[in-house]
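Ticket opened by: R.M.
Priority: normal
Category: complex prediction / small molecule

The reporter submitted a protein together with Thiamine Triphosphate and asked that the result be attached to this ticket for the collaborator who will pick it up next week. Submitted input follows.
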Amino acid sequence: MSVEVERKFVCESDVQDKLKTIGAVCIGQYEFKDRYYDSPAYTLTMKDFWLRKREGSWELKCPAVSRTKVEKTEALCTNYREVTDLPQIQAEVKEVLETFTRATEDSSDSSEQERTDGYGEDERWLKDLKLVCFAEYTTLRCSYVLEDDGGVGRVRVDLDQADFGYCVGEIEVLVSEGDDMQSTQQRIQKTAEKLGLGDKKKIQGKMDVYLQRYCPDHYGKLIKAHIL
Ligand code: V4E
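Result attached by the on-call engineer:
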């Protein structure tokens, strides 16, 4: 199972020059659309589970390590387990829904039912689980990789431009569950220093900004629960 360790940063105008200076190589620019799904009561995201369909592929991001509320909100680096096998995603999603909110889900009203209409054949399971799309946006991404620094998994830097007018950078490493997370975070920290990112402040991701702007109720609940 893969674990994505990442740190977000503010994209300054000279970031591409800095990346070239530290020996990062651009591996391409591409565009993708993400659709995120949850129950009308936000059962998945309130447990920090993020289900999405990116250009036809399903992905579930779930917390890789249990952290206290303060650790969660203050940490610069996040660790998320990434599940890409659809049967496994369905099993994990069902478990979260059944464990935490079956009662709440059963009380969904007709307007929520209507919102599940229009799903394709491969999305029938979403309808069965009463999951609806709560966020949808397109990202233009420019990806860089850093020269091999001897650690497990390559350090990658993504510069993202979301179609709702927000830009953010991410330094990330994909490792396996059980690998040394501390040394991975140190490698990310080293890259951040090389890029001159001294800022100790946690940076908002695309989802934070999207929800804050377009889904204030959902956003408020996640902030209150220290998920975002
Ligand atoms: C895990 C998560 C979300 C899912 C989207 O994650 P993110 O890595 O921000 O998106 P993206 O498009 O860069 O995906 P990638 O291509 O890297 O797989 S939305 C919110 N979260 C939780 C979260 C958090 N609590 N804090 C921070 C800094 N980021 C994400």
